[in-house]
Design a protein that fits this description.
The chain is mainly alpha-helical. Helices cover about 75% and strands about 0% of the residues. The chain contains ten helices and no strands.
């Protein structure tokens, strides 16, 4: 039976990393990515890169399988946040907006409704980009649920964003497998974690710039016609 004590105790990244390397498999990748994408703070950097490293060096898993398991877990975790905010969060948000404190904060029911309608129109791409941005990945599902975003669109764009991010993480693990020993893997993942965050931000910014460019091109075409 797998010892889950390192996972249930106060989280220590180094101890978990070692435990995960010793027990890694598709199911664990899936489970911990569900946790990472839900409301529980958990770093995907200690799951996908070592799993990809092991896939490249030991052959018990395939790197494509690691990416797919991680993406499926990310989607399930995101759906947990989505439905929690849909079923529980929305009434609380509206109650706050109509309270005295909410009015002091310049909120009211109409503004919340307008925000939900805006997210309904533009939330799909926001969901995609949010999956690439550090500290936002776990939270982007909440406004989607509050806005009652179409669940099929939510799943599509969440999966696409998670797929891109997991490919970046798996790529790091595969690259490290070409010159790093298993004993030094954690230190190297920690070393490159900062660059992963930068890479996510850059991808997000490029996506935003591309969207802006497409909007400008569409408006110009409408004006010319």
């Amino acid at each position: 039976m797998i010892d889950f004590i390192p996972c249930l105790a106060v989280f220590d990244a180094a101890s978990f990393f070692q435990w995960f390397v010793e027990n890694a498999g598709y199911m664990l990748v899936f489970v911990f990515m569900v946790i990472e994408s839900s409301f529980v703070p958990f770093p995907s950097e200690v799951v996908v890169p070592p799993a990809a490293y092991l896939a490249a060096t030991k052959g018990d898993m395939h790197i494509a399988g690691v990416v797919l398991a991680a993406t499926a877990g990310a989607l399930v975790g995101a759906l947990i946040n989505y439905y929690l905010s849909l079923w529980i969060g929305r009434p609380l948000v509206y109650r706050f907006a109509e309270s005295t404190v909410g009015h002091v904060c310049l909120l009211n029911k109409a503004k919340v409704e307008n925000a939900e309608r805006y997210f309904d129109r533009h939330g799909a791409i926001s969901t995609f980009i949010g999956r690439l941005v550090p500290a936002v990945r776990q939270l982007i599902s909440i406004p989607a649920g509050l806005a009652r975003m179409n669940v099929a669109k939510f799943c599509l764009f969440t999966s696409l964003g998670a797929l891109v991010w997991n490919m970046v993480l798996a790529g790091l693990g595969w690259w490290l497998s070409t010159f790093v020993t298993l004993e030094d893997l954690y230190n190297q993942v920690e070393r490159y974690n900062h660059y992963l965050s930068i890479a996510g931000l850059i991808i997000g910014v490029l996506c935003v710039l591309f969207i802006i460019w497409r909007v400008i091109q569409h408006r110009r075409a409408q004006q010319q016609s």
